[in-house]
Design a protein that fits this description.
heterotetramer, A: six-stranded antiparallel β-sheet, globular, C: alpha+beta, two-stranded parallel sheet, 4 helices, 6 strands, binds adenosine-5'-triphosphate, binds magnesium ion
Amino acid sequence: MYLKRLDVQGFKSFANKTQLQFAPGVTCVVGPNGTGKTNVADSLRWVLGEHASRTLRARKTEDVIFAGSDKRAPQGVAEVSITLDNSRHWLPIEFDEVVVTRRAYRSGENEYLINNSKVRLRDVLELFMKAQVGQNSYAFMGQGMVEQVLSLRPEDRRALIEEAA
Amino acid sequence: MYLKRLDVQGFKSFANKTQLQFAPGVTCVVGPNGTGKTNVADSLRWVLGEHASRTLRARKTEDVIFAGSDKRAPQGVAEVSITLDNSRHWLPIEFDEVVVTRRAYRSGENEYLINNSKVRLRDVLELFMKAQVGQNSYAFMGQGMVEQVLSLRPEDRRALIEEAA
Amino acid sequence: IRERFRTTFKTVNQEFARYFSAFFRGGTARLELGETDEYGLPGVEIVAQPPGKKLGSLALLSGGERSLTAVALLFALLQANPSPICVLDEVDAALDEANVGRFVEELRALSERTQFIIITHNRRTIETADTIYGVSMGADNVSRILSLKLEDVHVDE
Amino acid sequence: IRERFRTTFKTVNQEFARYFSAFFRGGTARLELGETDEYGLPGVEIVAQPPGKKLGSLALLSGGERSLTAVALLFALLQANPSPICVLDEVDAALDEANVGRFVEELRALSERTQFIIITHNRRTIETADTIYGVSMGADNVSRILSLKLEDVHVDE
Ligand SMILES: Nc1ncnc2c1ncn2[C@@H]1O[C@H](COP(=O)(O)OP(=O)(O)OP(=O)(O)O)[C@@H](O)[C@H]1O
Ligand SMILES: Nc1ncnc2c1ncn2[C@@H]1O[C@H](COP(=O)(O)OP(=O)(O)OP(=O)(O)O)[C@@H](O)[C@H]1O
Ligand SMILES: [Mg+2]
Ligand SMILES: [Mg+2]
């Protein structure tokens, strides 16, 4: 099962509707400081159900919605969709292609959709848990965090092994 | 007042007698991972009186003495000397050139010398405090530590300004 | 459950030792089960020794050596239990060119089973990419993405 | 004492704002005196806003932006109270090439009064050096130092 596409709009610095196509293998994201590379990684974690504020560098829901700049008005909604190839049915769901969407409004409300039908956050989490997509903390290594696994407490490192079990 | 020379022997990975000449301006230290660049910075902090174990990556005195490798026997002493130009008498001492030496033995004992006469650690610290050499925590920025000033508690950041005052 | 942990621990341990030796061209590393906590479960400690060097704590390793050791453990976890997707954000920042080379070699091997998304400034890492996206931000402070070929990329740092 | 703190704070604040604007080619930054602690002394907070962007917490800044902001504060402290010697260990690690360029420009200006010893892997930083030392480690795991010219240096990362 692999990631085919990422659609981002209104999420953090992505005020414009933006699409990234992915292929199996290695995709590199490059560019100068402050342009939005880590924001791309954040959008992936976010649509997979992440809500830890420190990990997303967002203290409240509002922080992930495009806040505006001196040349562009703020937006009211952040929306990220990932399209996954499911032809081998990694995900326990009928479709050959699965689209998961998450939206956030300034009210603080979050919406989740799977193939355009509204679901609850727990449905999204359960779906991915069975396929182990991005559920393991070792599937994401944040900027400046690479050494963290070395300074974990022994019990937290044990938890990492347990995740892999 | 500036640093003219650094002599290192037996300190961390510097088993051989090693000398670095410095000029005013910018000196860059380069090289592959694990070769000893940070150890050079450590030797400077160490000879200036640093003893915070985490900063020096050394839990006890012994850790700064060359521990040996599979091809080289361990050593018994670590010695670092810095030679400072004092022609403008930044340092409150008679000489035009000041040599500060620090030695450490496996017994845990540390020795300090200023122009080859034995002194106590506090004499070294007092000498540098008056000239403000390397006493300010902002005179050294360790590897991976650059962002630390941003995550300091407000009172610690105040202390930084007070050092500069 | 305890059985599964033991099996997984054994696999991760073997893979960690293997990746470490590949990255350091020698040396030894292993995971050890340490003291048990209040639930009777042992913690996991890391022991790492680059080739020819005396065994010391992890704190004695250089910045780049620590990065490599951490990546070796990460890759061992991925090998033991492949995640379909893995996102790495500038994990090669502290590595010199030779070490980046070894890192990307193992990365390519793992990319058979795991899809990697890698944020990097390093040219050697970018050279191994199947797809490259360049992110830019204009005067309006809005991010834009452009699909790039290797020849278009001009990073240096 | 309180008077000296106020004067220093004012200077550091001005310099911090200046370095930040130089590094970000615009934007604003300042230090603010915050709540007083149990001794009645106020803490020092940082407020930083890159050009055109909405003001947010420091946590919203990117990795490179955080590095630059921290260096701006460091340089402001050095400007307010020059230290004869300053040692920087890979502070340019997270910076892209353009930002390294601005960093070294301010560094050279400060090097009139402060002697800098800089550990780096970055070519642009190395190009500004008056002296270059290469550190190597042989099979015996002993460090050796060699004085280098710019043409001898082949770092890339
Ligand atoms: N809600 C938001 N609205 C608008 N802009 C935002 C929002 N959240 C973050 N940003 C902007 O995104 C930028 C950070 O982007 P990001 O962290 O992805 O940079 P980066 O490309 O990873 O850079 P670096 O190489 O320095 O790590 C910040 O400058 C910030 O102003
Ligand atoms: N007491 C000691 N005896 C012998 N070797 C030591 C001692 N202390 C540290 N070392 C060795 O020095 C090496 C670390 O050197 P250092 O931290 O200076 O590397 P570096 O050049 O800064 O690398 P990087 O680019 O990865 O930061 C370690 O591999 C360690 O084994
Ligand atoms: Mg980033
Ligand atoms: Mg180092």
